Amino acid sequence: MGLSGKLLQIIVPAGVIIFAMAAAAAAATAATNAKPGCPNKCGDVEIPFPFGLTEACYLDESFNITCDSGIPIIGNIPVTNISIETHELHILNLVARDCYNRSGQLVSNNQSWLQAAEFTISNTKNKFTVIGCDTYAYLSGYQNGEWYSIGCASQCPSLRNVVNDSCSGVGCCEVGFPDGLKDIKVEVNSFSSNHSNVFNFNPCGYAFVVEKGEFNFSSNYLYDLPYKRVPLVFDWAVGNLTCEEARNKSNFICQDENSECIDPQHREGYRCMCKQGYKGNPYLYGGCQDIDECVDPNLNNCTKMCNNTEGNYTCYCPKEYHGDGRKDGEGCSADPATVLAIKIPIITGVSFVAMLVVSSWMYFVHKKRKLIKLKESFFRQNGGLILEQQLSKQQGSRETAKIFTVEELNKATNNYEESRIIGRGGFGIVYKGILPDKRIVAIKKSKTVDQNQIDQFVNEIVLLSQINHRNVVKLLGCCLEAQVPLLVYEFVPKGTLFKYIHRESSTSTIQWDTRLRIAAETADALSYLHSAASTPIIHRDVKSSNILLDDDFTAKVSDFGTSRLVPRDQKELATVMQGTLGYLDPEYLQTNQLTEKSDVYSFGVILVELLTGGDVLSFNRSEKERSLAMYFLSSLKEDRLFEILENGIVEGGNEEQIKEVVELAKRCLRLKGDERPTMKEVAMELEGIRKMEALSWVNVQSNLEEAEHLLGETSHSNEYGGSRRTVVYDSMNDQVTLALGYGR
Ligand SMILES: *[C@@H]1O[C@H](CO)[C@@H](O)[C@H](O)[C@H]1NC(C)=O
Ligand SMILES: *[C@@H]1O[C@H](CO)[C@@H](O)[C@H](O)[C@H]1NC(C)=O
Ligand SMILES: *[C@@H]1O[C@H](CO)[C@@H](O)[C@H](O)[C@H]1NC(C)=O
Ligand SMILES: *[C@@H]1O[C@H](CO)[C@@H](O)[C@H](O)[C@H]1NC(C)=O
User: Fold this and answer.
1) Do 482 and 551 share a structural domain?
2) Can you give the CATH number for the domain in which 549 is found?
3) What are phi and psi of 458, to 5 degrees?
4) Which residues of 455-471 are buried (b: 16+ CB within 10 A; e: fewer)?
5) pLDDT digits (tens, 9 = 90+) for 80-108
6) How far is the CA of 331 from the centre of ligand 4 (A)?
7) Which of 218, 221, 223, 224 is the best mutation target for the ligand 3 pocket, counting ligand atoms within 8 Å of the beta carbon and taking the most?
8) Which one of 24, 155, 484, 680 has the lowest number of neighbouring Cβ atoms within 10 Å?
9) Which of 204, 229, 233, 221 is nearest to 94 (CA)?
């Protein structure tokens, strides 16, 4: 637009110049104001119709001009210029003079007569001037048919008061006269002494009608006026009829359609005038031509662009000024420089902004694309494809894991705010998150991008998404777009069983029946994993810190990071050793053969934990009894079981139950996996033991209520108020294990 605007500005003046040149050329050739075929010039003087040099060329005798060796003569008067616009006729008029000799005798008296039928002298353009120091003169003529006369006299005894360049009244007097005088006569005479008194400096008197501004008086003129003739301006008109009278006559001459008839003031006859907007010779048919006002800035007052029309013109605002081509005077007032000055910054500004927008958009798109690519690569890297496949396989099942976006989880954790951290471990960090639907979730964010861990994550997702058990922590979804995979779980408020077993204060230890229920529920969950799920799942890392507790102490098994699906036809699985020392199946340690019984062994350790509250590994114990299982078994052998039981557990006649559970734990901890009961058997037995408790219902009920009331109170005030983190040092793993047990 900027370029086209400039081009337009270059083209327009060029066009104007060309057009003006064409118009000038046309005027030189076409605008001969003479009658067609008539000579239009005499000497330098143009002879327009109604004037003419020959009978065929002039309107009537009064316009007959003779060309005498290059000087046009009308009557006997030399003509210097003829105008058909102003109806002026510039002529050279004789100066009237009378001259005397020293003795006062008249030498010559030349009066001037000016007879030209159609012509009157213009009172606005001329003045009557008299020169002499003993002189008076008359100007006489006919005004509307009446004889009129005016005089001017000058008398001065010396040159002393004579002033140059001004007809002040001393030695020179001048006077105006009425309009419309014709057939004038100028008569000059001696005022008193026939110049005898002033002969030394003024022997003659002079009088003449002269065009204003064309004569400058000088004192020298009193000695002798060097001019025989002075310029004078005639007015002229056609005939002696008014327009109205003439219009009906056959010889009415204002015939051109663009010509109009005007009655001149103070004189007879009529004049033809081109209508406004036209120029040319109104006396010729087709003589009035449209004026291109746009060519001459004096003819139009357009501030911007001018458009010539027939007999008129219009102004308009070019597009580059307002863009809407509105008419001049309607706001198109800025000059091109200003407009350009305004426009250039605007254009540059706009284009700069546009460039900025485009480039930032491109940058954004690029970044976004990069981000998407990155996300995709993370997704792939994080096993998203496998997961998608896996998830799509089980499309039919009731609940499948949702795949969250990075943004959703950023929002849920308030950009992983410090205060949202509910657990830390070697594996990474667990954040408390709040989903848009106000659901509270736990978001597990891995610390490293170890490919092994990623496999575990995917594995866990696939497993958990298949599991729907009230004692298994529910996986809500995951996010694989992030650099590290993120898992979204249901939030389990009370944290790990480990915390409740191994807490320092004994006031809020879990009561026996709750422990028994937790054991039964955990066993049920593991049993379900081993048998009820579509593909048997070996947890491989059953431990108290992987058992979470709900508000009502419902157990929820978590952390399936090391879990493996075991095809039904395959009872054993050779794997790289995984699990936690102290819980690890000794058989598995030896053979590397993973079976469901490995989980049973680990569960046995948990039972012992529940019974004794002892550390799974303790360096306070002898080397043989360093692991809780060995310590427990040796204590049993030595029949000092009740020494190692948790304080306050044996209460209200639950010894039978405890004995049964001790017996069960013993069987779970058998060295040979084959000799251990299945998880299903364990679960059933624990249910049976719980029913034993029901027999002594009344006794237990009060204890239970009391205990739970106490627990609820302390859990809020002491341990789990707000977002306080509880971190436990796991000496064997030599790593920080998070209290909520999402880690290992
Ligand atoms: C006649 O008068 C016109 C306008 O006053 C002027 O342009 C032109 O030059 C004059 N012609 C002569 C020969 O003086
Ligand atoms: C003035 O008039 C005389 C005759 O009266 C004549 O001879 C002379 O040429 C005239 N001079 C002029 C300038 O007209
Ligand atoms: C007027 O001007 C002329 C020459 O231009 C000069 O000779 C003369 O003395 C001047 N007269 C007066 C009164 O100044
Ligand atoms: C110039 O503009 C005035 C109004 O500002 C208008 O009345 C007039 O007709 C215009 N004249 C010409 C010659 O354009």
Assistant:
1) no
2) 1.10.510.10
3) -60, -40
4) ebbbbbbbbbbbbebeb
5) 999 988 899 999 999 999 999 998 899 88
6) 16
7) 218
8) 24
9) 229
